[in-house]
Amino acid sequence: MLNALNAAWNSELTPDELERVRELLLDARHTDGWPEVPADGPLPGEFRGGLHLLASKPEDRSGALAGYAHLDTAGDAFGRQVAELVIRPALRRGGLGTAVLEAVLERAELPAGPGDRLRVWSHGDHPGAARLAGRFGFTRARELLRMRLDFEKAPPLPELASPEGVRIDRFRPGVDEPEVIAVNAKAFDWHPEQGALTVEDLRATEKEDWFDPNGFFLARARLSGSAEKPSNTAGERVVGFHWTKVHPAGEDTDEPVGEVYVVGVDPDAQGGGLGKVLTLAGLRYLAEAGLRQVILYVEGDNQPAIAVYRRLGFEQWDIGVQYAR
Predict the structure, then answer these.
(1) How far apart are CA 182 and CA 159, in angstroms?
(2) Which residues contact 120 (CB under 8 A, 6 or more apart)?
(3) Looking at residue 304, what DSSP letter applies?
């Protein structure tokens, strides 16, 4: 069916193409609640770099896209290509999803035989996406839950009680990046996206409008036998962090929303409740900032973390599924 469309792969988007993609993503967000797309500026990280497939109907003279795919050819932390597919809501159930997925598979050039070389996201876990994945030999490989906390409905936050020898501090731009990335690499060595974060990535994020070091909490401690040099005069080193984010009011909400963006704990410092302490530090900060709601993303198989979040008052409200082939 792709032959019946005006479709082409591009490694870079022109300003006009960028806005056409943005318009489609915003239309999909209105129906699906995803993706988080700004009204202007760069696209979200999952749509940057790699290759872009833009597909439109020849009879549509407006230039509006009927479908779009992004293929991350560089791959995740394990070298797997990752694809995002978006079909305009009004044009779904007409074979466009099949055509776009076929184009992605052709472009990905997967070797013959079984393997886990391509991951494709389905946001919302739609039954149609599951059927499409099954037709093309994909298996369900990963679930990412989106959870939400309403401070007005949730129980009061517990008091902070840091483990002995640990203090909660704030991130210092230009100083703490190497230690944070070192902890991140150890805490997320299993994670296909977060585990690949670099010092350069972190410093680039610090330049984005939403970044606020006041909402970036670090746990500092002296670990016996550590060969790493501390980054401050107190002889401490970072053993964990909680990076919060605030989403401005927009199309989907008339008020700002906080996010538990990343919580990471050095495996050598786990087992003493440090992750919960860091989570509480960030939640208190967001509550004191006057935010009513907080969201977070958590792996569907991370039952210990999910249990902690539920006890704090978080409830699941969405899910994303990654299919593998």
Answers:
(1) 29
(2) 82, 83, 84, 85, 101, 104, 133, 138, 322, 323, 325
(3) H
Inter-CA distances, 10 with 69, 109, 166, Å = 11, 16, 50
pLDDT tens digits for 27-45? 999 998 888 888 888 898 8
For the record, the structure tokens of 83 come out as: 């694809």
How far is the CA of 166 from the CAs of 213, 219, 227, 228, 236, in angstroms? 20, 6, 18, 17, 9
Place of tokens 């050819």: 73
Residue in the block written with tokens 């932390």: 77
pLDDT digits (tens, 9 = 90+) for 260-284: 999 999 999 888 899 999 999 999 9
Q: Catalogue all structural domains in the chain, each as residue range(s) with its CATH number.
A: 2-137 (3.40.630.30), 148-317 (3.40.630.30)
DSSP 207: T
Query: What pTM does this model have?
Result: 0.85
